[in-house]
Amino acid sequence: MAPVPRQRLDLLQGTLDLLILRTLQWGPQHGHGISVAIRASSGDVLQVDHGSLYPALHRLERRGWAAAEWKTTENKQRAKYYRLTAAGRRQVQAERDRWTRLTEAVARVLDPA
Predict the structure, then answer these.
(1) Using CA atoms, how far apart are residues 16 and 38, in angstroms rounded to an integer?
(2) Which domain covers residue 21, as residue numbers?
(3) φ, ψ for residue 48 (rounded to 5)?
(4) Residue 101 domain flag
(5) pTM of the shown model
């Protein structure tokens, strides 16, 4: 019997921002690296395609939660590296608090007392 492939989960709106911000807490990273980190840390369950990732990164920049600069990668390619700003560090906690409230509320609906 062939192994059952893991199902890819679609992200709730706003969740991607939290995942990116959390990933940037580990240090500056280029877009592809952020995508790889999210996939790896989720056990290959969450896969962020570039069509979703880059608009989210630009949105985080506009909000002042991330800043970017062009650098050379390990492979000698030019890439935009994103880093968390002070406002972004504060936002990570706010987003985590929001996520906790959301998951607790969903759990109450799924398994009422």
Answers:
(1) 10
(2) 15-110
(3) -100, 115
(4) yes
(5) 0.83
Which CATH number does the domain housing residue 71 bear?
A: 1.10.10.10
How far is it, in rounded angstroms, from Cα 58 to Cα 26? 19
pLDDT in tens, 59-86: 999 999 999 999 998 889 999 999 999 9
> Which tens digits make up the pLDDT trace of 18-58?
999 999 999 999 999 999 999 999 999 999 999 999 999 99
- In angstroms, the CA 8 to CA 71 distance is 32
Calpha distance 29→50 (Å, rounded): 15
Kindly report the number of other CB atoms within 10 A of residue 3's CB atom.
5
Residue 23 burial (CB < 10 Å; 0-12/13-18/19+)? buried
Residue 2 counted as domain residue: no
